[in-house]
Amino acid sequence: MTLALDISKDFAQVTDWLKPVKVGVTMVDSALRxxxxxxxxxxxxxxxxxxxxxxxxxxxxxxxxxSIGMQIVDADGTxxxxxxxxxxxxxxxxxxxxxxxxxxxxxVTIQRATYAKGTTGATExxxxxxxxxxxxxxxxxxxxxxxxxxxxxxxAEAIVYFAQQQDLRPSDRIISGSTTLKVLSWDxxxxxxxxxxxxxxxxxxxxx
Length: 208
What we know:
By secondary structure, this protein is mainly beta. 2% of the residues lie in helices and 61% in strands. A 6-stranded antiparallel beta barrel has the order 1-2-3-6-5-4. A 6-stranded antiparallel beta barrel has the order 7-8-9-12-11-10.
């Protein structure tokens, strides 16, 4: 038997699928969630994914209405509202929402340098730790072999995706296990649609 469900007309009757959610600071008892898609957001071995859903919210429970950037929290986590549509015939709000997922098994340390003259007169950095155990995904982009003082070294580029926005500056460094990455640039500030990310250069290491 095929169930024909017309959300525009039957919203109040689909009680079997309605679940409580928190919209901003407001609890909504009867919300309907419908999946749109889940996909890899960037080359990351499946560790950085984006999921899009529709939430249908009864206008009577949310008279002020939702707003873009507001978060909806349900049993599966936190979703950020990207778009809102007021469906007037059914007196409900339809919210297109996104959840950015990153494998939190990888943790990195962020450090910043202050510079002063050393005993030889050369300017040397002193590194201070800004944050530890930061959830991130390090994705190598490319590696080139160069020669420096008769030593063959590999210079690699990487992108580091963060679960949360970070306060970065040029030449900060990110420590991931035994790998050190020099921060070159970053973007994704206040973006609702993508994770904050930093473009980095991996420290060199000897080549045989």
